[in-house]
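thought: fold this chain, then report.
action: predict
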Amino acid sequence: MERAPVATRLDRRLEALAEPMRREIFERVVIRPRRLGELADGLPVTRPAVSHHVRILREAGLVRVVDGRLEVVLDALPALRTYFDRLWLEASLGDTWITNRRAENNDLGL
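observation:
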C-alpha cells in the first residue's frame, strides 16, 4: 500500500478534526483507549453516528482499533503539532517571514 504524501495526510487529519463530535471522540481516546460502546454511552449522539465518526478518524490515520479498543495513532500527533507550531511562528514573525520564505522558495525553484 502506497503512503499518501504528507500534505494529503495532514489535510485528511485536519478535515476529520474539523467536525466537533469527531474532536470530542478523538480527545476522549487521547486520554485513554476506549471501546466503541463506552464512547457511545458518553456522547449525545447515536451509536451509529459514533461509528461513522470513528470510521472517518480511522481513515484519516488518527485512531486505530487494538484488542477491541480505539487508541490514538501516536505517529499522527507530531505532524499536527508541527503544522500548528509553524503557523504560530509565522504569525509571530509577520509578513517579513512570509515574504522571505516565498523569495527563498522561488530561488530554489519551488
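thought: worth noting. The longest strand covers residues 63-66.
final: C-alpha cells above.
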